[in-house]
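example protein:
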Amino acid sequence: MTTRSPILSLRGIQKSYGPIKVLHGVDLDIRPGEVVALLGENGAGKSTLSNIISGTVQPSAGEMTWLDKPYAPANPRAAMDEGVGMIHQELKLLPKLSIAENVFVGRYPMTSGRLDRKTMEDKARAGLQRLGLDVSPDRLVEGLSTGKQQLIEIAKALMLNARLLILDEPTAALGGEETQALFRQIERLKSEGVGIIYISHRLEEIRQITDRIVVMRDGAKVQEFDSGDVPIRTIVEAMVGRSLERMFPALPVPTEEVALEVRSLSSPTKAFRDISFAVRRGEVFGIAGLMGAGRTELVRAITGADPISAGDVFLHGKPVTPRSPIDAIRNGIVLVPEDRKLQGVVLDHSIAENIGYANLGEIARSGWLSTRRIREFAEDYIKKLGVKGRGGQHAGELSGGNQQKVVLAKWLARKPQVVVLDEPTRGIDVGARSSIYDLIMDLAREGVAVIVVSSDLEEVLGVSSRIMVMAQGKQAGILNREDANDVSVMELATI
């Protein structure tokens, strides 16, 4: 492979925003038919470099060549016309359009000047089926789960017939089966000579799918590995620039006291049926399963966000089955949702305001609300959770890891008894993940019952005392930590 001429070459690429330099002379080659992993912590420069390649951002210095010709796309459309496509981590689908319309937006198939809807839907259906997504292409995107929307974004990218694809966190919301379907498509694209830049924080999958690894740190390329088969610890240490003693913190020992109990819980939509489990004070209880297993729907129901058709929820033996999120919150049960940008924070409001919104009763005890009081209240939790930002800074300016800390901060200020985290580290880099895991363990040590839902099998195994595995809306089994591993979890998840 190294003897092939690159389809894309970058030399000395720099990018500055005023006096702040975010890229420092990056060199990179991508050859046909290879997958190159581009890794680094949030802020390392991966997204800026990808946006330069895809025409979203213009470099301050350096040059690029594409198929041995000068390459300087003025915008994403120009890059796509050259054969360079990018699928972004943040979903960009239009909810009021159909799946097929989203897949072909901007390039609809036309016949005699009219939209050829049948051709569009047939091609969209075929693309979705290749990724294992059995859903009608004429249904609206609105209401689809995050995981299904992610697959639609991927199908959209795969239909570009591009010579180079940039995939930014393509499996962040996918389970194991969906991820393997994507990998099969990547192998097909490789065999057709397509080059792929693959950005992911799931390091185990990097070893499965990539041919080379490029590591960035602080805007510079710091290391390159000529194989994807590199120990995870080696990759992580290159990313963070220091030695790591452990990936996951030690688990605290839970008490015998049951904090939360769920009995025979069912959903009116059949998303989950007859689910029963208990979580002790100080326990981290994991929920695993493939996409569509009903994990998110279950925890949304427990926290009052989705309806319950049968069953009960108990808190310290007292029935508290919530009928709304405010019911759950008042009883000390809070949810950190899977999509923090849409459901967790108000992006164009400040960090302090985001923390304050969930705690107005505490902040405005006399009925009056002041900016100073909100700021003072929030500062304690910004410091406690290590949020890298100022109270007056907009939440949308923060990295994913720091946004997640803001969501945690607003709920921890309420002193909850049960904290439910749905995909707590989705799209968060390794260094920031470590601090999120530490916060989870801190909660458990303080006697909080913690539920963690994760599509990342390594993560759910690493943070949980026990794991409940769901399959097709049913409870497939509960595994103790000593009995839980990749094989035992997947055996239950695929029942």
